[in-house]
Amino acid sequence: MYRRLITILLSILPSFLFSQQQQVQRPEKSLIRLIDAKSAVLTTLMGREYREIKGPAQFLHDNTLILCDSAVWDTQANIVDAIGHVKIIQKNTTLFSDNIKYLADQSLAQVRGNLVELVDNEGSRLRTNFIDYFTKDSIGMFYNGGCLMNKDSSFIESSNGYYYAKEDRFLFQMKVEMQSDTVLMKTDSLAYLARENRAVFLTKTLAWQGDGFLMAKGGWYDRKNEYIHFSNDVYIKTKNNEIWAREIDFDRKTGNARLEYDVQVLDTAQSAIIFADRVNYTSKPESIVLEKKPSIALYTEENEVRDTLFFAADTIIYQTKLHKDVDSSVIAVSKQRKDLSKRDPITEIYYSSKAKASLLNKTNSDTNAVKNYDSIQVAKIDTVTVDTVAVNIDTVKVKFLTAFKNVKFYRSNLQGVCDSLQFNSLDSLIRLYKEPILWNENKQLSADSIQIILSGRKLKKAELNSSAFVAMQEDSSHYDQVKSADIIIFFDDGKLSRFDALGSASVLFFFEEDSVLTTMNEKECKALSATMLNNKIHRVRYFENIKSNAYPLFKLPDNKQKLKGFNWADEKRPKNRHDVCNRTIKSSQASTLEMAEKPLFTQFGIYFPKTKK
Q: pTM here?
């Protein structure tokens, strides 16, 4: 018996000593400790000892607590196979699963089960079937699909991902899809900072909200403050707009937005394109401020022919206000201005039925083979009949447009410059201030201020107020000129059809014989009215205090051929649209991006099947 006992001891002693040696070599904190269980039974399988643990049981390894119903503990390999209602608890994280294989030497929990759930301190729940969790660094890796649900029911899913417990940060990779409130998103790489409630988009991202669509190559969403930033070639599609920019910031709480660098807005409802390198949008009251080389293109199409007005300034401000919020003095002045713009002073003063008899001795007509002054048919301004509809005027939106510094615009039949410009929809008049100049074909129009009247988007009338001057180029060195206190210009299909000079009018007209200019006619009068035909003066009627002189051009000094104040400013005239806006117009992407597939949320359906989207 004694000899047999010695034999058994000698046979098991080497393995026992080896096991003790291995355990001694491990640092104390790397050992797994069983701190609670109903029973622990030592068993041997294939010559290897295991401990069968019946629970509820608790193990402790370093800073990690493992709870389970039962376990198989390989003390030699320092491995625990935990089974049934398994939990791994660390400071910031709790893992739930059916079973977990815990490899203490690697500080690795291989978490598997029908449903694996990781819960962080913020209450976010990540569900999957496969997580490898490194307890030493508190880093988890999931794969083969997973979905994160936040306390507010927003969620993110992907094929693979990582969790960094110390920073409470998630990284989602491959087929990433996200829903937050009414916003749906797709990307290939997304970081979610749970503590800050911030999502960071690391690669190309697509987003949908209602009818709106967004595409960008990067950005972030601060969900706590409801603030969104997108960068790197941002594109947005709404019901009536397409927007491009390198960077966009949007405050969902206020509705305010900021767009920067190569901004372009295609507004199909207004038939307009906006360009700038900085756009600030304020929602209440609604305001758009365009800065850093801003410009606007307004396009029209008639008889399948498109024409575009390009407009630029140093700063452009667009605002809308409810009628009830507009200052009463602004409403009153606008109404007065609109009423005055409808008047035709020449007709009222000189062609009214009461005035006809007294005009017989006050008017003068000249006749010439080239410029025929024998009579005039004074045209009346077109009027537009509007059907009256019962509306609440307080709910009507009033539009305001203001442009500051270096204002210039170009259209095929009209060009212009000035220092500042104003417009509002109360009177629908465009007002140009500080050295404004207009050009129409061979004609230059200038005054202290100019007021433009449109019908639809067609030029109908221009009022040159104070120090008005009209110059019409006849050849490289001769210009027909009209100078007056005020001049009113009428247009028909974009062409100057008539002009009236009111108040101390001075005139220089050049006449030709056999296609050669030979004579200059100089006139002064109180007022005049002229009609145009084929881009030339056709008929002129002079009124009151008429003085007239004619001079042969032969040896006529140049200073006699110019009225005081004449300044042909052709160097300021925009020659083409690139002088106003040299930006490349982007092609619409609406039709191609309609094919973009919205998120399907496959992982959400697997891991949160009873949760409503």
A: 0.78
